[in-house]
Amino acid sequence: MQIGRLGIRRQGMRVRKARGSWGFTLLELMVVITLILILASFAMPTYQVAVTHAREAVLRDDLFTLRKLIDEFTIDKQRPPTSLDELVEAGYLRGGIPADPFTGSNQTWRTDIEDMPISPDQAAAGIVDVHSGSDEISLDGTPYSSW
Prior knowledge:
By secondary structure, the protein is α+β, with helices and mostly antiparallel strands. The chain has two helices and five strands, in the order E-E-E-H-H-E-E. It has one domain. Strand 1 and strand 2 form a beta hairpin. It is elongated and about 90 Å long. The termini are far apart.
């Protein structure tokens, strides 16, 4: 073993610094990066499905909450709400109208408006149901707008 200038020892083809640290060759680094990319390519579809499942869970929860609050408003006020903003103004939705998780906006909710009987001789038009404004298809094959 020879010690050259700057305290570097030479052993065969590899070069080692005096303190014992070894370096990686470019080929070794490329192999490791390639393996990481291959593993990441297997994980991406699973990650995307997990994100879609999470958005679907949020949509189900938001629809359940909105429908429950529409029913509560209708029972309390003896008439259906005319808009989702009316639920916010009356204090039923304190944080405002939630954003549709698939459109990213709180203005895209689709509402079903029908005449609701108030008394035997009167009816009032208002919201009776709410749906997502997205045209996408869910993981179970149904459109989100039909939920």
